[in-house]
Structures are given as structure tokens and as C-alpha cells.
Amino acid sequence: MSDVQQLKPKDFKSNQEVRWCPGCGDYSIIAAVQKTLAQSGVAKENVVMVSGIGCSSRFPYYMDTYGFHGIHGRANAIATGIKTANPDLQVWVITGDGDGLSIGGNHMIHSLRRNVDLKVVLFNNEIYGLTKGQYSPTSPRGLKTKTTPYGSVDAPFNPVQLALGAGATFVARTLDVRPKHLQAVLKAASEHKGAAFVEVWQNCVIFNDGAFKGWTEKAVRDELTIDLEPGQPMIYGKDKDKGLKAVNWRLERTTADDAGIWDPDHECPAAAFAMAQLDNDPEMPRPMGIFRRVSNPTLDALVHEQIDSVTEKRGPGELKDLIYTPDCWEVG
Amino acid sequence: MSTEVIRQDDVTIRFAGDSGDGMQLTGTQFTDTTAKVGNDLATFPDFPSEIRAPAGTRAGVSGYQVHFSSSDIYTPGDAPDVLVAMNPAALIINYKDIKPGGIILVNTGSFQANDLKKAQLDSNPLEDDTLSGYRVIEEDINQRTIEALEGTELSKKDVLRCKNFYTLGMMYWLFHRPIDPTLDWLEEKFKSKPQLIDANCRALKAGYNHGELLRLFQGRYEVPKVTDAPAGTYRNIMGNQSVAIGLVAGAHLAGLKPFLGSYPITPATDILQHMSVLKNYDVITCQMEDEIAGICTAIGASYAGHLGITTTSGPGLALKSEAVGLACITELPLVIVDVQRAGPSTGLPTKVEQADLLQAVFGRNSEAPVPVLACSCPADGFDCAVEACRIATEFMTPVILLSDNYIANGAEPWLLPKMEDLKEFKVEFTTDPEGYWPYRRKENLARDWAKPGTPGMQHRIGGLEKDAATGAVSHDPENHQFMVETRLQKVLNVADTIPTPEYFGPENPDLLVVGWGSPYGAIRAATEAMQADGASLGRIQLRHIYPLPHGLEEIFASAKRILIPEMNMGQLARLLTSEMPQFKFESFHKVKGKPFMAPELKTRFAEILEEMA
Questions:
Q1: Could you tell me the CATH number of the domain that includes residue A165?
Q2: Is B342 inside any structural domain?
Q3: Does A221 map to a domain?
Q4: Residues spanned by the domain of B164
Q5: B482 touches chain A (CB under 8 A)
Q6: Lower CB density within 10 Å: C or N end of chain B?
Q7: Over the stretch A281-297, which tens digit does the pLDDT of each residue have?
């Protein structure tokens, strides 16, 4: 492949017909990923898209990169193997709220804990789509679905808090209906060295239409969401007149003038946790953007550094030395 | 006055004590030294699944049996000649296995009233007639060790922990073994703890001198070294170790870097531990969060161009089975090692069984054929691991290698392969985009392997069925049937690359014994002994379980009856019956968590031969 030729988003499209439902939020996400890759200048052959099972997990087939469509919940584990074997590859995990947080919850937290250099994009539509409409681990209490006809009694996960708790070094949230925001967050994730976790609010038009409408519709969006800008005051509202500040370990509402500065780069994740906690307060805006962005050594790099250092110390292993050790003896 | 030296060609010793007494260490040290002396040997460690069951109880008894000889041997021995019993519990559960007239060395220091109570004994077996018929040697090893270490700064507890080396010293004296290898080992092991080197070395030497000074034994035994062993270089090896070395060697012969994704599980964990040390051989090991992650990282690594490996035991293989199917449909090389243990669920995790055969061959959803092979003894682990790597890479398929607890923890001298006999089977990655598609195949039906990072070869594979011609997702009925048949035929093609098992025995035997896995040693010992007496008895050993090698029909047809001894309820017999219904396969099964012994096999073989007479 030519290094000089600037690739366009369409260069990342495969020849496969995309088969998501008309109006699905997935279309906006794949377009943003393709734009991000094109702008980053990465060579197509160095990108691997890994997925599990679910509507979102068909994603790799639609990309003209390397792709691996795995089994339910295991994308993070497969991706860990790919990235650790070959750290030169840029590895993305495409997953959903069922795939990544229910059946694959264990692999999700452990890949984040290990800080494998993966770009994890979690399409959260708060429902099982591919199995046609059962509640998911992010469905709100009370949601009526095919398996909760009288309303769900499960408490949902907060994906951002889960990722923070697992020790992810990059945690962000964005949404399908704001392509520019989506692309900016994905760009930041792709530039992050380490486990990057991006929750994307994604609308399922068939089984959970409008799940996020209460926050994302133009009429209410500015009042009910806040964009987190690193190093900038935490302000929101149609007239940018409202703000947030930290008081006694909590975030409280204040005026724009009095708003605190948002710092996702601080070593301590307490502010990010407090920010994610706003989801539980109907009086508060829901935060969008980067919650956390810190630098830590990645698993894939450490594995190879260790191999190099042991090899330097003990010398490159020769097959003969593996078999013929000093404790052997001769007969005849 | 010197002690009488009695020449003996074959000795079996069982060391038995509390889990905390260091019997496994004592046994392995005795074994390593015995290997250096030049005897043939075979070992059988037998320990509880609890790390430290309540001290002194029967549940906490840990044993290590070593059989050594001046001639070629295949099993860890039947009835031991010597029992070393460190406490009443160890004595009471082991003495019945000892040969009549055999030696029982008892540590009387652990025979207080409280020790007897912990072993649930109402009376002291040393004081009643329990041990009549044995040569019992009583010694207060606790006290002797305390005396030997007089003046040390170690606590009394730490002093008593040296009693296993005192005991080992006594055994070295009794069987004419040098103590230097163990002294060297102690120096290395406790490099940073000179106090412990000193204490254990003193205990070992004291035990050795004790034999000479105290004249407890009637004589010393000498087991001359093997003189008719095949010439070559040998090394003492345990099964898990030989598999680990074989996997690394196999990957190198394929021109690939090995990647082991695993999760600790008894009795397979040692393979992960051994391979973790070998980082300078370009080995990547990842201890993952669970069994499924273990195999999935290995699959990811194979996709990226490494040789993916995962190691486990039966319950872990069950958890991995969906992912084995994924490796099957994505047609990636992958080596899965199942070190079998006893029982369903957790069962008897430290005991032996070979009841995962049908799980290995059939245990997946839908049609997911996978080549299966089995190693027969600790040294065979190397060849089988290399063979598994060859099949996996030449045929782009997951391969299951079956070992078991008996092989994994048993030890024997390994005649090392000559380096020039290790044939390379280098993988060639596809790099030319011209006419490439993911399921383009070679003559043996293996698909072409292009790895990420190769320009122009971007492709997608995964768990959904793919079109044979384009590699795109396909739900076409004809295509699915074609792909299922192709994947099966590819695995069946492995049979064209494997030898017919060698038959040992007279022409047209009355009874043919078919072995697979670790009963190999007992079967060989039993058949060779009976053949020497003129029995019309032959045997073969199967390494490749699926697909079966060509040429078996002729061998089966030559025998009047066919018997398969296996540590399960007849799984190979069932498989062979379905593959070759024209023959009658009789099963002789044992599922006690213990290996077959040659005498019980002889009895069964003799019964059948008598029925036929």
C-alpha cells in the first residue's frame, strides 16, 4: 500500500452490503470510525477490527481492514491476543451492552485492568437487538421488554463507572446523533496509548427507539447534557449560563462564572466517578466527552519489553539448549 | 566392619507422609539422583487436592513412588519393596500395598497418642500385629534430625522441617546413591538463605551416615545401572515439562513464535509455569482471567500470525469448547492440551483418568472435527507436542493433545532426539494479493494463511459461515454443506500424513491389546512378560485418535479377540466400534483415579486367553 496517498473514509469501506436496520445509530458510528481512520493516516493493513456477537458486531465485515468476528462476549480476549502478539497493529473492539457488559463482562474488565492498547467502542442501546428485544445490563429499571413484560427489576450498570472501576486509562462517552462529537471522541481514543473505553449512546429504532431521546433531542439537549472539555470550565445550558463545581466530593450546580475546570488527566479518578454519578440525578445534566485520560504502561508493550530483557540477560534461546540441558547424561 | 551389599535389579520405594512433610520433594530428589546413577526409572506422585489437609490425618497423606531398575521399565512399579512412613496416617493407608516381607521404615517420632488419634487409630500399629510379615525399621527421625542440627539458630519448627532430608539421606545410603547432586541442588535452591542450605545439608549427611553407624538395616542394596539402554543422551523428564518443551520446539520448527493463553488448572498448570520461564525463546505466555479468555487470546494470536496454544484439563476444555469451534470455522492453527484428571465436574482433581476422549473428539456444537492425539508416557509428551504443532500448522486446524495426571507428574529418563532428526515444517504466509481469498486452499485442503499487517490482504474471518469462493458471509444452503464437508475432509486428510502404529507380538495373536494414553507402560510390561511365557498376545499403542491412522483394519483382522484397557467406561472401544463396526472391541475399564497396574492387566489377559483355550 502506498504511504503517501491520503486515504479517504470510503477507502475503509469493504465491498459488503451493510445490513443494519434503516435509521439504526450504527450507520453514524461506522461513518465516524471510517473518518477517524482516514484522518489518522494509519495504513489499512495495520488496522484490525474485532467484535463479538450482536448487531454492532457485524461491523468488521463492513470495513476494508483486517477483521475478526468472534463469539459472544469474547472480543476483548481475542483482541488481547492479537495486540499482544503484534503490538504494531491498531486493534479496535466493537461491542455492545449485552456482548461487552453481560456475557463478556469479565473479559471487558480484565482487558481494561491490564491496559491492553485497544480501542473499545461499546454501542449502548440498552436492549438486546439481535435476539429481538430483551432487556440488557444497561436497561433502566422498569423497562418493559419481551422478557420483562411487567418491567425490569434489575439495576443497570453505569458503563462509564464500570470502566473507571476496572482501571481503564481512557474513558469517554459520546452519542450517535452528534457526528462531530462522536468523531472527536473516537479521534481522542485512537490517539490514546492504552485501553480506551468509549460508550456510545446508540439508538435502536426497532426494539428500544428513543431510549436516549429525553437527553439527546435538540429541544432539551443543551439543558440536559454537558460537554466535558479538558481544561475548560464545566458549563452547559442553551445560553451557556449554567455550570458545575465540586463541593464535598460531589458535583453541584452553579452559575457559569463559578464553574470549576474539568480535568480528566488527573491521576485520581474521583472526579470522573463523581461526574459519571450525575446520571443518577434527574436534576443534573448527563456528561458527554472524556471522563478520564491518563498515561500508564500497556500490557502489549510490557510483554515485549520483558521478553527483550530476559533475552538480553540469558541470550536468545537455541532449540538445542532447550532440549539438551546441563542435567543430561550419556549412555553408550 | 563393612555392611553387606546386596545386588538387586529392580526396586520400588514409596515415600509417604503428611502433605507438609515434603514427600514430593524427597521423591523428586531421589528420582533425579537415581537418573544420574544410570538406572531406568518411572515415578508416580499421589497427593491430595487440599494443599494442607489437617495435619496428621489420612486425608492429608501425600505419597511419591519411584521404581528404578537395571533394565528397561515402563511403570512406576506394582507392590513397593520399601515404604517410608513419616506418620501413622501414612503408614496405615499404604502398608497393605507393600510386597510381603518388604521394608517399612517408620518415623516413630510422629507416633504419639495424639498422632494416632489424628489418624483415627485406636491402637498403635507398631505395637500390635498389623505389620507382621514386613521388616519394620523404627527410628525417631524427628529426634535424630534435632540432634543433627544441634546448635543451629533455626526454630524447632524449622529444624523439624529438615526431617525429609534426613530421611532422604538414609535412603541414599540404603540404595547406594551419591548425596552430591542433592547437596548441589540445595546450594542452588536456597542461594539467598545460607542457614537453610547448612541445615538441610547437615540433615542429609546425618541421615546418610546414620545408615552406616546405627546399623538399622541388614544390608545395603545396589541397583546397577542399565547397560543395554539405547545409546544416546538422556535427561530425566516429567510429562508436563516434556509437553512444554515440545510446544516451544514445535512452534520453532514451524517458524512461528508460540503464544500460550491459559488459566491455572490442576494438573495442567505446570505447562504454563514451564513455558513462562522460556521468554528468551520468544515465548509469550498470558495467564488470562478464565479458560475462555485463555483460548480466545490464543486464537487472536494465531490470527495475528503466532502459533496459539492453550493448556487445560477436562473442565477447562468444556469451557473452551465454543471457542474450539471458532478456531475450527476460522481454520486457524491452535494447539489445545488437555491434561486429563478424574471425574465429572471437579471430580478428583489430583487423580488420574482418561475419560475426556469423547469430549475431545466430539464435544462441540455442530460439525466441528478436530484432530486428536494422545501421549503415552512422560517422554512421549515432547514428540506428541511437536506432532500437534505440525498438524495444526500444516492443516490450519485446532488440534487437541490429550495427556493425563499420571503422565503429567510422572518422571522417566528421556532419550533426547538428535537435532538433525527434528524436521522443520515451516509455515509460509501468503503475501501476494493476486487472486487471494480467505478460504483459498492448498492440495491438503488447508486454507492459505495471511496475517494482519500484510498490505493488500485485508480480509475478515469469523464465526459466521463463509462463502467458499469469496470469503463473504454466506447463508447459502449448498455452500454450508460444501464447507462442512470440506472442513471434515481436511481433518481426515491428516491420516495420510501419519504412520500405521507398530504391532508388537506374534502373528495372528489370540488376543490383541489396543492401548492409548498412559496405560501404555502397564500394558507393555504385562504383555511383554506374558509373551516371554509364550502367550499368544500382541499389542499396539495409538497415538493418533482422530483421525485414525490407515492400516488398522489389517492389524485388527489378524487377531481373534481385541481388548482395550482404558481409564474410562470404554470410550476408545466405543469410538472404534463406530468407526470400524466389522470388529468387536472389548473394553477393560478402571475408574478409580489410579493407573492400571501390570498384574491386574495380566490377570485379565490370562482370563481371556483361558476362555479361548
A1: 3.40.50.970
A2: yes
A3: no
A4: 5-222
A5: no
A6: N
A7: 999 999 999 999 999 99
Residue A1's pLDDT is 45
Q: Give the neighbor-by-neighbor strand order of the sheet with A242-247.
A: A235-236, A242-247, A250-255
Q: Between A75-85 and A105-113, two packed helices, what is the crossing angle to 10 degrees?
A: 30
How many angstroms away from the CA of A43 is the closest CA of chain B?
8
Can you tell me which residue has the cell 462441540? B364
Question: What does the pLDDT read at residue A2?
Answer: 46
| Cell numbers for B108 | 516413630
Residues of B in Cβ contact (< 8 Å) with A68: 300, 303, 330, 460-462
With residue B296 as reference, give the H or E element that holds it. helix B291-303
Structural domain total, chain A = 1
Q: Does A314 touch chain B (CB under 8 A)?
A: yes
Q: Looking at B421, B439, B463, which one is the last position of a domain?
A: B421
**Residues B415 and B538 both lie in one domain:** no
The pLDDT assigned to B333 comes to: 98
Q: Measured between beta carbons, which residues in chain B are less than 8 angstroms from residue A84?
A: 259, 284, 286, 297, 300-301
Chain B residue numbers touching A48 (CB-CB < 8 A) = 304, 452
Residue that terminates a domain, selected from B368, B391, B421: B421
Provide the H-helix boundaries in B41-111. 88-94
Instruction: Give residue B1's pLDDT.
Output: 47
pLDDT beneath 50: ranges in chain B: 1
Contact assignment for A68 to B461 by CB distance below 8 Å: yes
* Cβ-defined contact of A307 to B453 (cutoff 8 Å): no
Total number of domains constituting chain B: 3
Cβ(B32)–Cβ(B75) below 8 Å: no
Residue B229: what pLDDT? 85
- Biggest CA pair distance of chain A: 93
Whichever domain contains B563, its CATH number is 3.40.50.920
> Over 80: is that where the pLDDT of A3 sits?
no
Identify the three-state secondary structure at position B402: strand
Residue B44 sits in the same domain as residue B179: yes
Task: Say yes or no: A28 contacts chain B, CB-CB below 8 A.
Answer: no
Can you give the pLDDT at residue B50? 80
Q: What CATH number corresponds to the domain at position B45?
A: 3.40.920.10
Beta bridge partners of B411: B238
For chain A, the average pLDDT equals 96
> Domain span at residue A206?
9-211
| Cβ-nearest to A85 among B252, B284, B419 | B284
Q: For residue B439, is it within any domain?
A: no
The DSSP bridge pattern shows strands A170-175 and A286-293 to be antiparallel
Which of B357, B296, B360, B293 is closest to B330 using CA atoms? B296
Q: Which of A88, A112, A327 should we substitute to test contact with B (largest number of B Cβ atoms within 10 Å)?
A: A327
Residue pairs spanning A and B at CB distance below 8 A: 209
- Give A307's contacts in chain B (Cβ within 8 Å): 279-280, 282-284
Contact across the interface for A328 and B457, Cβ inside 8 Å: no
- What's the whole-number mean pLDDT along residues A59-86? 97
Q: How far apart are CA B166 and CA B161, in angstroms?
A: 10
The reply to whether A56 falls in a domain is yes
B249 with B199, same domain?
A: no
Between A53, A77, A317, which is nearest B292 by CB? Answer: A77
Q: Note whether A13 contacts B: Cβ–Cβ < 8 A.
A: no
